[in-house]
Amino acid sequence: MTDTKYDFGIVGLGVMGRNLLLNMADHGFSVMGLDLDPKKAAALEEEAEAGKSVKGTTSIQEFAAALKSPRALMLLVPAGKPVDAAIDNLVPYLEPGDIVIDGGNSYFPDTDRRFTALAEKGLHFFGMGISGGEKGARFGPSMMPGGDREAYERLRPVFEAVAAKVNGEPCVAYLGNGSAGNYVKMVHNGIEYGIMQLLAETYDLLKRGLGRSDDELQRIFEEWNNSEVQSFLVEITGQILKKTDETTGQRLVNLISDRARQKGTGKWTSQNAMDLQVPLPNIDMAVTMRDMSAYKEERVLASKTLATPPTTDQDPENWYILETQLRNAFYFAMLVTYAQGLAQLRVASATYNYGLHLEEVAKIWRGGCIIRAACLEDIRKAYSNDPILLNLLLDPGIGGALLERQEDIRYIVKLAIDRGIPVPGYMAALSYFDAYRSGTLPTNLIQAQRDYFGAHTYERIDQEGIFHTQWS
Hints:
The chain is an alpha/beta fold. The chain has 19 helices and nine strands. It has three domains: 8-178, Rossmann fold, CATH 3.40.50.720; 185-436, N-(1-d-carboxylethyl)-l-norvaline Dehydrogenase, domain 2, CATH 1.10.1040; 442-472, Single alpha-helices involved in coiled-coils or other helix-helix interfaces (Up-down Bundle).
């Protein structure tokens, strides 16, 4: 047993767990890690800098006894049953007032269940989304905690120290009650799905639709990252397109299978949005296209029989103008994707009593996380100006930016249609914009149809009440 009392502990010493503990140690905190694998426990101490107070162990009893009271410890284990198993193993060694944090991508109803169960034992439970990957964990992630506000004060000094910083402000904040943190991270991942799909469509239109070379593609994304669309995902796209395969000398991206994997957070975002009746077409479409990618054999078969339409338009004479139009279209679609996710957070906050402040959400997404982007500062300002903003599209600055670029996205969508290149993300963004700005939608016909075949009734615009008609 160690005599030292440690400030913070992490259960699960994979790369993320080790990096986060080493980050904490760099900021002057004494830290302890627990893993049942002796090699991982030893690796934590081996990677620590000399003089830092860092210890790894395989003993739950030693781990719990060595933490300062009230204990603050984080689980970084796979979502689902492993989280419950880790909690069950730890609880006998914990005391009332201790704080348990789930730092994985847990589904928010599981977080609510654990929050309630541990509260009955006098323990505080936090669900905290962490974004930024292995590098972010080591040098500054974006963190999204939700749980008991008073208990957060025990965690705040540690989290604010290790989080990414933007203009000196840490990319972490107490977000709200219960599962608020895991919910915000879920929507963050849904937005991530949507933007990645838009970048893939941009790449496909340029490469397959317009015949741009690998060098030209790499240049375009690199230049874009110095423009208003600057973001982590645009940045890494340029780097990916530059990478060559050591064996063949070809661009590595051209050798990667087009069957995409997913862990489920995008699907959770879409499913819950449907429960809340929040339209989320860009995230829905991104999930759908990953599903479509799995049908490789069928797609190859269809490509042999369902021919691409003959191209009637000529290649652009001025590529600079086209690239500008495409960049504007991407910016438009990216803003709309953020707007959809933030609209979901607004409704979810009211439904689940989270008490979210969307300016805080935008603020902590500006650095460290996967969806960090220059436009998030404009989004933060929009919610600062109007904390109860119903939809980001209603902000004068954001709405004005979309209006300035709507002609470009309409042109790009038509160009893709003519070339036979699927751009469902661009189409979804434009359709959302057009539907949201429509004071009248054709759903009056749908209401009449429902009443015709199912006597589901309808409302009228000229009279109060509920009506049913014998249509035939």
